[in-house]
Amino acid sequence: MTEETTPQTPPGHNVKPGLAGTLTRGFINSPLTPLLLVAFLALGMLGLVMTPRQEDPQISVPMVDIFFSYPGA
Length: 73
What we know:
Elements: H1 19-28, H2 33-50
């Protein structure tokens, strides 16, 4: 006395992917992805090495001091 039911697809299962899904699918299937990863890593490390550093930089930090009286507090 059991009824056989056909499995129903969950809601949102047959939805067409948007821009993010299409880009993701393209990058997952692309052989260029590891090359881009290595290139961006190299650019980041190059930027880290080439950024100038000083022990005591002479910078001007904008600052404002506000004083007010609050009698009785």
